[in-house]
Predict the 3D structure of the following.
Amino acid sequence: MTPLLPQPLHKVSSVSTRSVSIIGTGSYAPEKVLSNADLERMVETSDEWIVSRTGIRERRVAAPDECTSDMAAKAAMAALENAGVTPQEVDMIIVATITPDMFFPSTACFVQTKIGASRAVCFDISAACSGFLYAIEVARQFITTGVHQTVLVIGAEKLSSIVDWTDRNTCVLFGDGAGAAVLRHREGSRGILASHMGSDGHYSEILQIPGGCSRNPVTAENAHERLNCIRMNGKETYKQAVTSMISAATIVLEKSGLKAEELACIIPHQANLRIIEAIADRMKLSIDHFMVNLDRYGNTSAAAVAIALDEANRTGRMKQGEPVLLVVFGGGLTWAGSIIEW
């Protein structure tokens, strides 16, 4: 007798394979510029020390009353304008951030109200500096399957609110800002050609904020320890960043069938010029292949690759139909890579 097979509870529909493209980008940086010279007056450091070790010359700092959702909304509106899309056409808003306005509601919900995208479903994701690419991959799934048509992805950070300004090893690295992209299916374009995401929680302690949440709340007794500020093991972070980003780049190049020299532009996470130079060396490419703006913005975490992408788009670093590699690394550890046909 033939055994009876269990019947599915729901009819399974065939999965669409629609391509997903970035059809518009935008970014925002606060007005206040904090230079290395300014930092010399705050901590024991020097312009020469900072530039030689990081490549950073200045960074932007948000105003005291300027929160993450304010910056995110401005980047979002710039991206929507660039895409020719109205806020009412947006089906979903995903904000990648480690500096939300508050634990809840999500920063995406605040952005929704500020830009008037009343139809959108909204949520945040936390993947540190990898957040923007993680969010793009999440958005891709909704569009590919036809569940949503237009997704607004934002990377936004007010890192000045979680920096220990007495720690010269970390306070020189970070800045504030936001970048955004509008994703949609675009007829005749292959869009995202390949993507890869990875994580390794075994290295969580080398880059983290140790306090402020349920594991280690900030109290009156421990407030002086600044547990709600960024802590980083610089040498180990550098090592893992180079290794992970090279791995992600290699994987997506293999998936796409492309060679590194065929890429019109490489947009890496903007954390440290030494990291980018090491990646260029391992990929056997000139640094000219890489979009670099960390000298002006510092490390803006989830916003970094998004701001660089917008700048590359608006300055013509890649033309329609050309392949672009985005590759990132962040605390978690997390890393990701995407190759997109522009």
Notes: The mean pLDDT is 94. The radius of gyration is 20 Å.
